[in-house]
């Protein structure tokens, strides 16, 4: 791919009571443009990732990005949505604008304001990304992934210990990330033990197995090769692949993430790489069972053997392939429209030597997996440090 990240920004994630969707978008845009050291007038097109779904009264958010600077007036701006993979969907549209020659510099910003909505409103919005005709009875996405965890456990045995280790790993990494929603090392024993502070939420999933409702925004500038060569920093997007699977869960084997697996194979093939060529991975741990199954889908383990990956320390910061050094969605937070952009920003910061938290060892190539729905929309990106 002939597209490069030349600037990025990331607000803190969390319960941001003083922020609105507009203020989050505007701040992220301003900081990303400042990071890229380009003029606002040089931006040719804007893509805004926002899931929305009734979290805030303000719909039609694309042109809110123009509030960042008068020079953005009359720039084309389009909202992109693909469930929890909304941010990566917006990035893919930006890359296509660059590769088609329609744009030389594209702004992509993802944002979500979720915490001002009630629990009922959040659950109703999230469950709309399922196959409502058959799956709305689960009541929430935690309910859906609780069913997935139950199916997985029935086939492969109780994996509660492995899920607790994944949660503990991600909270430990998130404790070092100043941008994370939860910056607290909870420890394995707390994550493993069902208690008043860590109750069962759905099926075998405990509270520590579930990502949080968050506010936040992230943005980046994508540029063509000519612009990137003049930039102070640049990270090459070596490949980005989208694979969609059937929406109804009953049309898929829900003990496997086949769309994720196919996306990883395609992205690595297009980049001319093997999985272990990567220095680190940021993956979509909306629930710990998802990260466990993603180990298998990306090729770290055979089906049903993902627990061995975390037990052997493969995905720890000092392991062969560190996963979610940012803390992942589990600790960093999951403001839906921002998540995919956030994951790419975290990876770019690692590769550019700007990451403020747990650092990968001599990072050269990073992978990102962002998922929409219950394994329905699957995006894998391979990013490479420019020497």
Detailed description of the structure:
- This protein has 387 residues and is α/β, with parallel strands linked by helices.
- It is 36% helix and 17% strand.
- The chain contains 13 helices and eleven strands.
- The chain has helices at 21-36, 86-100, 119-127, 132-135, 141-156, 160-174, 188-192, 225-230, 258-271, 288-298, 306-311, 328-332, 336-352, and strands at residues 4-10, 45-49, 77-80, 105-112, 200-202, 205-206, 216-223, 235-244, 280-282, 365-372, 377-385.
- The strands form two sheets. The chain has a nine-stranded mixed sheet with strand order 3-2-4-7-1-8-11-10-9. Strands 5-6 form a two-stranded antiparallel sheet.
- Helix 2 (86-100) crosses helix 13, helix 6 crosses helix 10 and helix 9 packs across helix 10.
- The protein is globular and about 55 Å long.
- The chain starts with a strand and ends with a strand.
- The mean pLDDT is 97.
């Amino acid at each position: 791919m002939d597209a490069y990240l030349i600037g990025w920004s990331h607000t803190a994630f969390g319960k941001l009571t003083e922020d609105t969707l507009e203020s989050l978008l505007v701040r992220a845009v301003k900081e990303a443009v400042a990071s890229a050291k380009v003029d606002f007038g040089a931006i040719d097109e804007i893509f805004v990732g926002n899931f929305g779904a009734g979290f805030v009264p303000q719909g039609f958010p694309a042109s809110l990005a123009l509030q960042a600077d008068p020079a953005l007036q009359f720039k084309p701006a389009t909202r992109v949505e693909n469930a929890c993979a909304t941010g990566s969907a917006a990035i893919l549209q930006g890359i296509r604008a660059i590769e088609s020659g329609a744009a030389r510099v594209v702004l992509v910003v993802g944002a979500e304001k979720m915490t001002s909505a009630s629990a009922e409103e959040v659950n109703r919005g999230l469950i709309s990304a399922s196959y409502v005709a058959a799956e709305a009875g689960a009541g929430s996405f935690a309910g859906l992934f609780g069913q997935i965890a139950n199916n997985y456990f029935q086939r492969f045995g109780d994996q509660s210990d492995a899920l607790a280790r994944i949660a503990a790993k991600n909270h430990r990494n998130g404790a070092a990330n100043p941008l994370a929603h939860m910056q607290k090392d909870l420890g394995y024993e707390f994550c493993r033990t069902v208690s008043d502070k860590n109750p069962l939420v759905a099926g075998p999933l405990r509270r520590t197995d579930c990502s949080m409702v968050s506010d936040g925004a992230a943005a980046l500038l994508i540029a063509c090769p000519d612009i990137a060569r003049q930039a102070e920093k640049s990270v090459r997007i070596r490949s980005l692949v989208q694979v969609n699977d059937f929406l109804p869960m009953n049309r898929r084997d829900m003990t496997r993430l086949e769309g994720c697996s196919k996306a990883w194979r395609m992205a690595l093939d297009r980049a001319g790489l093997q999985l272990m060529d990567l220095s680190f991975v940021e993956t979509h741990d909306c629930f710990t069972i998802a990260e466990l199954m993603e180990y298998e889908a990306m090729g770290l383990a055979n089906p049903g053997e993902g627990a061995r990956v975390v037990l052997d320390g493969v995905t720890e910061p000092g392991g062969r392939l560190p996963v979610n050094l940012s803390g992942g969605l589990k600790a960093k937070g999951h403001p839906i429209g921002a998540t995919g952009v956030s994951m790419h920003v975290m990876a770019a910061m690692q590769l550019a030597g700007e990451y403020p938290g747990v650092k990968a060892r001599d990072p050269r190539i990073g992978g990102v997996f962002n998922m929409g729905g219950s394994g329905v929309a699957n995006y894998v990106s391979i990013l490479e440090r420019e020497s």
